[in-house]
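Protein: Histidine phosphatase family protein
Species: Cedecea davisae
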Amino acid sequence: MQVIVVRHGESEANRQGVIQGRLDSRITDRGHRQVIALGAALADYSVSHIYTSPASRAKSTARVLANQFSCQLTCDERLHERHFGVLQGMQFAQTLREYPGMAERLLSGSPQTAIPGGETVFDVSNRLLSFLKELSGKHEDKTVIIVSHGHTLEILIWKLKGGAINDDLRRYGHQNAAYSVLNVGGEAIELTSWGRATHLKNTG
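Structure follows.
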């Protein structure tokens, strides 16, 4: 099974520098342009199903792609953004004032950052890998798209690249509406390309 994992288009909170986590935020006009460009970049694929996080910014992205490929769309909670606990809803500058040590570790890309009330990188990677392995039995020899979130996807790529605890998660970041490609078969998950974003250069 081939899996294309996609980050949603730019949201209002992305533009404002707010840590969204499980909070909701609508797609911007720029975000819509990014999603249209993403659809054009994926036009040569034959997609049989799309799975999405339940967040509206992800569902808006997924609906555009589902219409393009005329395929079914399914929401799954395991594809949601990382829960950022006490930091959710804060702008980055505010986190540095109120939780300086934690915020600096988070912004430095440390996988070891513990957030009160939030998820660890292991919580996120475990739910994603569980989802992918379950999916492989449903879509053998098919191509599916997964629409998720920036931190969730960088954790997934980090895990697939070896998951070193002293690594910098920022290395595996996805721009809004960028994508990566995986091959999934049973327990085996192979990362074939990641962070593709050349289609976004003219989206503003």
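Remarks: The two ends are 34 Å apart (CA to CA).
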